[in-house]
Automatic annotation (TrEMBL):
Cofactors demanded by this protein: Mn(2+); Mg(2+)
Keyword Ion transport: no
Gene that this sequence comes from: rimK
Source organism per UniProt: Roseicyclus persicicus
Keywords recorded for this protein, A-Z: ATP-binding, Ligase, Magnesium, Manganese, Metal-binding, Nucleotide-binding, Protein biosynthesis, Ribonucleoprotein, Ribosomal protein
TM segment ranges: none
GO terms for MF: ATP binding; metal ion binding; ribosomal S6-glutamic acid ligase activity
Protein name in the entry: Probable alpha-L-glutamate ligase
């Protein structure tokens, strides 16, 4: 039903496909095409189907309320505004809603901070049979800006195409799965080599550059930062965090979880079960250190070990002493842990996505080996975990604030014992073992979080 509508000179409208449930618009019959006030307007996606990502402050004067939108690009054309200036603008097509009426409209995007109305409705949107009553205001149902502060705006969020960055240096199974699955869902996924990024440290407008260009705005960043570049990767990630980009895992959580000692301290503080663990700097303390973790065999671990490479089992006290002496001689940092013999060369890897265990596998060490890492020849199979194990995994991921984590634990006599929390868990082993589509579950979580863009503070100067 579009006939007989009467429009005043200003009206409340909605652009539901963009996730904008309420805007005050001015009816401007002097203009042909409608216009929307947007900023950070950036094209993305494949050249055959280009899209536009932009942000809108739907409430005039409220620069802290930002809605990120995306839409397919229809055109790019020269537009002359009422003040006679001409400008090359992107054109999108979307749906304009007033009351119960919905009509398709072409909208040009322009960044004019001083526009009193976020939207101008041009002649092209006015349907045959409609009448303009220039002396009246709000002839159509009134809306209000309250919707932006309620859950409604989240529920009404459109399935928009997201622009996502995977920070990774490697073209491996996990990266490829993240790219193909993201594109499958209509998103654009760009893999960025963290070590090629450089940063402009500026209090007002933080930026990340890569290969001579400023990186665009992303809706989300999936960090896959290798252990060898943790510090630099965390710095790049912090820059994205400052920009307000949704990062699946944060820099602080990645850094803390990578350092075994720091990680165990944080897990202990959260009262999460773990093997008896001790640490010392002075050689004089070696005996006491071993005594601290108990009588039996001990496991000695380099603080930055991954893939089981720096993990040694010492069956006797003498063996432990000589391994510790050797590590000290190399000035390596390590910790000493009681050996959880009852785990019998098996550990459990729980994959946690946004506070939920989405997959779990049991890894069994090959014969004669106590380390169950797949890189050490371990075998993986799906496993049913107990409720206690599930809760432990979720809590361990939460300790580091990780939205995507692999939590490794041993099955001890007295409950689960967490060994480590991995912030870049591999996808191949767990997908093969469980048959689950892990990236799809991860993207569901990202979509929930960034549609529409969460309300965030922007500095007035950057707005
Ligand atoms: P990495 O980071 O190098 O993988 P982990 O701490 O995860 O180091 O240890 C590697 C493997 O060694 C674990 O997956 C587990 O199978 C075994 N392991 C580690 N610590 C213990 C322990 N305290 N008791 C028994 N087995 C252990
Ligand atoms: Mg491990």
């Amino acid at each position: 039903m579009t006939d007989g509508l009467i429009l005043g000179w200003e009206e409340w409208v909605a652009l539901p496909a963009l996730g904008l449930p309420a805007l005050k618009a001015k009816v401007d019959t002097g203009a042909r095409t409608s216009a929307l006030h947007a900023f950070d307007i950036e094209p993305f996606g494949p050249v055959s189907r280009p899209k536009l990502r932009f942000a809108v402050h739907p409430v005039p004067g409220r620069t802290d309320l930002t809605i990120a939108c995306s839409a397919p690009i229809r055109d790019r054309r020269e537009v002359t505004s009422s003040n006679g200036e001409s400008e090359l603008r992107y054109v999108i097509e979307t749906t304009l809603r007033m009351g119960d009426t919905e009509v398709p409209v072409e909208v040009t995007l322009t960044d004019r901070t001083n526009m009193a109305y976020r939207m101008l409705i041009g002649r092209q949107a006015i349907q045959p049979g409609w009448r303009i009553s220039p002396a009246d205001s709000f002839c159509q149902p009134r809306l209000g800006y309250d919707v932006y502060h309620t859950a409604e705006v989240k529920l009404a969020a459109p399935q928009r195409a997201l622009r996502i960055a995977v920070l990774s240096r490697e073209d491996n199974y996990s990266t490829r799965r993240l790219v193909t699955e993201g594109e499958e869902r209509g998103h654009t996924v760009e893999v960025i080599d963290t070590t090629r990024c450089y940063m402009a440290l500026n209090a007002l407008a933080p930026e990340v550059h890569c290969d001579g260009q400023r990186l665009p705005r992303y809706d989300a960043v999936i960090p896959r930062i290798g252990a060898s570049i943790t510090a630099y990767g965390a710095a790049v990630l912090r820059q994205f965090e400052t920009l307000g980009t949704h990062c699946v895992n944060g820099a602080a959580g990645i850094t803390a979880s990578r350092d075994k000692l720091h990680a165990h301290q944080m897990l202990a503080a959260a009262r999460i079960g773990m093997p008896q663990t001790a640490f010392a700097a002075s050689p004089k303390d070696t005996d006491n250190l071993i005594a601290l973790v108990g009588e039996g065999p001990v496991v000695i671990k380099l603080l930055e070990s991954t893939q089981g490479k720096g993990v040694v089992l010492a069956e006797t006290r003498t063996a432990a002493q000589s391994v510790i002496d050797a590590f000290r001689g190399l000035r390596a940092n390590f910790l000493v842990q009681s050996f959880v013999a009852e785990a019998a060369g098996e550990d459990i890897r729980c994959l946690v996505v946004d506070g939920r265990v989405v997959a779990a596998m049991k890894r069994t060490a090959r014969g004669g080996e106590f380390r169950s890492n797949l890189h050490r020849g371990g075998r993986a199979q799906p496993v049913r975990i107990t409720r206690e194990e599930r809760e432990t995994a979720v809590r361990a991921a939460r300790v580091f604030g990780l939205g995507f984590a692999g939590v490794d634990m041993l099955r001890g006599h007295d409950g689960p014992k967490v060994l480590e929390v991995n912030s870049s868990p591999g996808l191949e082993g767990i997908e093969q073992a469980t048959g689950k589509n892990i990236p799809a579950l991860l993207y569901e979580a990202i979509e929930r979080r960034v549609r529409p863009a969460p309300v965030r503070k922007r500095r007035a100067a950057a707005a």
